[in-house]
Amino acid sequence: MTTTRTGYKWVGTRPVRHDGLDKVTGRARFGADYATAGMLHGVVLRSPHVHARILSIDLTEAAAMPGVKAIITGADLPDIPDETGTGSEGGINFRDLSRNILARDKVLYEGHPVAAVAAVTLRAAQRAAEAIEVDYEILPAVLSLEEAMEDDAPVLHDDLFTLGLDSPPDRPSNISRRRVIARGDLDAGWEEADVVVEREYTTKAVHQGYIEPHAVVAETGEDGRSTLWCSSQGHFAMRTYTTKVLGWEPGDMKVIPAEIGGGFGGKTTIYLEPLAALLSRRAGRAVKMVMTRSEVFRATGPTSGSVMRIKMGARRDGKLVAATAWMAYEAGAFPGSPIGPGVMTVLACYDIPNVLIEGYDVVLNKPKVAAYRAPGAPMAAFAAESVVDELAEELGIDPIELRLRNAVTEGVRAVYGPKYRKIGFVETLEEARDHPHYSAPLGPWQGRGVASGYWFNFGGETTATVSINEDGTAVVMSGCPDIGGTRAALAQMAAEELGIDVHRIEPVVADTHSIGYNDMTGGSRVAFAVGIAVVDASRQLIDDMCARAALIWDVPREEVEWVDGRAQSVTGAAAPLTLEELASGSGATGGPLSATVTVNPRGAGAGFSTQICDVEVDPDTGLVTVLRYTVVQDAGRAIHPDYVEGQMQGGAVQGIGWALNEEYIFDRNGVMENPGFLDYRMPVASDLPMIDTVIVEVPNPDHPYGVRGVGETGIIPPMAAVANAVYAATGKRMQDLPMSPVRVLEALSGD
Amino acid sequence: MARVFFPTALQQLTGDLEECEIEASTVRELFVRLEDRFPGIREQLASAAVAIDGDVVPGALLERLEPDSEVHFLPAISGG
Amino acid sequence: MSRTHVTCVLNGDEIDFLCNDYQTLLSALRDELGMIGTKEGCGTGDCGACSVILDGQLVCSCLVFAPEVEGRRVETIEGLAEVDHLHPLQDSFLEGAAFQCGVCTPGFLMAAKALLDRNPSPTETEVRYGVAGNLCRCTGYDKIVRSILDAAARMSDPERQKEAT
Ligand code: FES
Ligand code: FES
User: Fold this and answer.
1) What percent of chain A has a predicted confidence (pLDDT) above 70?
2) Over the stretch B30-73, which tens digit does the pLDDT of each residue have?
3) Which of B8, B51, B80 faces A182 most closely, judged by CB atoms?
């Protein structure tokens, strides 16, 4: 139900994107596509052990090898203090960040970087890395949440004391933090409940799976000033983090954004950047570093594996009256799982009076997790939405109807505190209920499931500039990498405001020296926050141009209005002035036409999605095939519906992969057994049906066109939608992800 | 008077108080008043996100509070 | 270290280059010839980002040694468009929004071309299997599959083909 807007010329249309031609011809330059003459190649030596003390590192032999120009180890990075900055969930700790980039005294997972080498060829660098001798003292490892949380578990960090406990702990542990949300009177709630369901769920670590591996070229001059070409979700943050880890000044580093080949949260942090910059400084030459796919799996991302126990109670009439959730998320080698958003979102779809949610952030000997699309919410929704489905069945109420009876609406207090502003959850449920998919017939071994999800969305610091060229074309400049069509969306908003053709506008992603600061492309923020800045800048320009027309015509400002890309006299006293005329004559009216706006906007409208999934289960093999899939999501306003649909479809399919196939598999020693796309099985085209989309538009009052973020919400419901469908097909509740054929077969044979 | 809600983790500092009303016209002023009343709380709040009337406001110190504003402190979130 | 001299037909032109014996075709294209349109997503034949057409066959260029292309015909993304117009697949991908980040796009276009060269009017299922060796993490494949079907329709409809040029 994409509402076709009357009254807008560009907003809500589907123009060809501005960077499209470069991307279909192979001209677009992604991270690994940069090269400079005479550059060196850098590689990383990684730990083969999951937990070990580094006793010594001997570089003698490696340094003497032909072509080797520089080698660095953890000792070459400043030992920075325990300091938290903003940026990822719960803030980013620079001390941990530094130690994840190069281990100092301990390695904490297989693949943890220990040294980096730059040499004249990749081969020479690899050989030198192999010649580095590291003496390790192997330590006992913790590989599961259960193990890590045990009282006598080996401890990863002896300075890690749990935050958020009732009384401060007297000794270190692997639990970095406890988060609690409580409200109402649970005893009374359980008392009131006619039906109670309690279940435990587990999910495995899964990777963001972007197709482009991390890559960077760094060139640091003799004066210590450097240039980085890298693909990331935010080059300003890359500069902040990189210079922080190196102890350099941000102003001395220019980061030029490459096109980014997918991030999904995984490119909101740094891995190679400081290594390349420092190697370049040491060698006096540019250094290029590109990860292999195996390195990407073993040492970047993933998102947390989890264990969750959910208990929910409802009255006979379907009213949810009490709920508890106990959740533990793997943080990997350093604190910082998305448990915060996990506890906040787990019950956020429903208005439940009596609640206790308890979440734990747990370190263990696995790669440090990174943000992944709606960090922390998808696994929580898998658990909670499975329980809701079970309650619906016990109560004999249609699952969408049960959700409607409890859905949060504007003014309802979210379980984590604040009241919801204008939201479109009910609308997504109603659209799903009325969709032909929801009542289509099913065959044997087929089943249908539904699930919903909530995500906050985010605003963030933003700078945008809009300038008019002398021919009346415009440039829209921001500093947020375009991962999925945001250039087009920003140009559309500017075109709508300025009243010119969208293809007379060139949207540009500027480097760190060419525009003011911008937060990362993340939190589904670009069309919202950068959109606000672009619209404001366009309006300032229009105001300026009207004033100039008034000057030219010698009439009061109020007698000039902006219509269809022209300044027009309201009295008809003068012929209209076009953008081109105003721009080419701007020297006489006060100089070039350009406006820059900076914002840090509130009001990123919350996003909700409800999804319907049909599966067929093969009782002989346990294979689950998705037959039909519909994503209903509130986009506030879809600026470019193709790319809104694309976000919904892509998110849903990542969730389907998480549900059915994807998982980190470790051997007994904690070494990842499937660090490649062959064995880490992401969905391919032949696994899937078309993904139908229904864009609901409940405009966000805090955006000039009503935009809500759409990038993340789509990944939240799929795992529960698939699990609920598998239940409907087989009568088996799948409580552990992924629902791989083996697991499904096991469940089926449990009869 | 802004209505301020304390997350469970902060209630140790507030003597189990879940919410209170405080006279303040900006978030900065609110922080000062809170520190007066619950010493040590400001440090705890440094890493939290501030939500005013249901809306997370980044870097909120100068943000104005209306007389009937509701203020919540949440874990910082940015997303993927 | 002595380098191997290779002569081949690349996108219709006879060319030659030097490479190391162990170098892949992918690396020769990117690092020796500067043709960065062909991407590396895995280097192990599992993602299709490096897809090129070798003597009419779709291959992963990361699995072909560069010296193996001696005397053979190689087609890459850089050769897909004509001087003044795009290949219908490129038009369909643009108009159908068949990519978000676009890093998988060159590989998909080459895989789709190989498919349509051999089967000009594939069914949806044939398209899905035709590009099953190519990973896209952004789109969920819906718009890619539709765009390939649309290109097939354009190519078999002389009217639409004229329009496109
Ligand atoms: S790079 Fe060749 S298949 Fe992935
Ligand atoms: S568009 Fe990003 S991987 Fe396909």
Assistant:
1) 98
2) 999 999 999 988 888 877 888 888 877 766 677 888 888 999 98
3) B8
Question: Model confidence at A2, in pLDDT bands (50, 70, 90)?
Answer: very low
Tokens of C2: 């002595």
The pLDDT value recorded for residue A85 is 62
pLDDT tens-digit profile of A199-240?
999 999 999 999 999 999 999 999 999 999 999 999 999 999
Looking at the domain C88-164, which fold is it?
A: DNA polymerase; domain 1 (1.10.150)
Burial class (CB in 10 A: 0-12, 13-18, 19+), A55: exposed
Structure-token pair, residue A727 = 């239940």
Stronger pLDDT, B17 or A510, i.e. the higher one: A510
| Closest ligand to Cα C135 | 2
Task: Fold for A20-28+459-599, please state it.
Answer: Aldehyde Oxidoreductase; domain 4 (3.30.365)
Token output for A454: 């909530």
Nearest residue to A25 via CA among C94, C158, C44: C94
Cα–Cα distance for residue pair C8/A312, rounded to 1 Å: 67
ipTM surpasses 0.95: yes
The percentage of residues in chain A with a pLDDT greater than 90, rounded to a whole number, is 94
> Token pair of A624, please?
């689950």
Residue of C nearest to A690 (CA): C142
- Which tokens is C45 given? 């034949």
Chain mean pLDDT for chain A:
96
For C:49-88, CB contacts with A below 8 A are 49, 76-78, 80-81, 86
Question: What tokens were used for A192?
Answer: 């009131």
CATH number for the domain running over C4-79: 3.10.20.30
Task: Give the DSSP letter string of A257-310.
Answer: EPB-S--TTTTSS-SSHHHHHHHHHHHTS-EEEE--HHHHHHHS--B--EEEEE
The yes-or-no verdict on residue A90 having pLDDT over 60 is no
- Residue A4 confidence (pLDDT) above 90: no
How is A385-444 classified by DSSP, letter by letter?
A: HHHHHHHHHHHT--HHHHHHHHB--TTPBPTTSSBP-S--HHHHHHHHHHSHHHH----T
- Please compute, for residue A43, the number of CA atoms within 13 A of its CA located in the half-sphere on the CB side: 19
pLDDT at residue C1 in the model: 65
As a CATH number, domain B2-75 is 3.10.20.30
3 state SS of B73: strand
Distance C59 CA to ligand 1 centre (A): 10
Q: What is the pLDDT of residue A602?
A: 87
Q: Which CATH superfamily hosts domain A34-139+212-261+267-299?
A: Aldehyde oxidase/xanthine dehydrogenase, a/b hammerhead (3.90.1170.50)
Give C119-158 pLDDT, tens digit per residue. Answer: 999 999 999 999 999 999 999 999 999 999 999 999 998 7
Specify the residue for token string 């087989």. Answer: A730
Per CATH, C4-79 and C88-164 having the same topology is answered no
In Å, what is the CA distance from C61 to each residue of C47, C65, C67, C136, C137? 11, 8, 12, 18, 20
- H/E segment holding residue A568: strand A566-569
Around ligand 1, the residues with Cβ closer than 6 Å are C 40-43, 45-50, 60, 62
For atom 4 of ligand 2, the residue with the nearest CA is C136
Instruction: Give the bridge partners for A356, in sequence order.
Output: A182, A324
Mean pLDDT of A612-639: 98
Q: What does the domain layout of chain C look like in residue ranges?
A: 4-79, 88-164
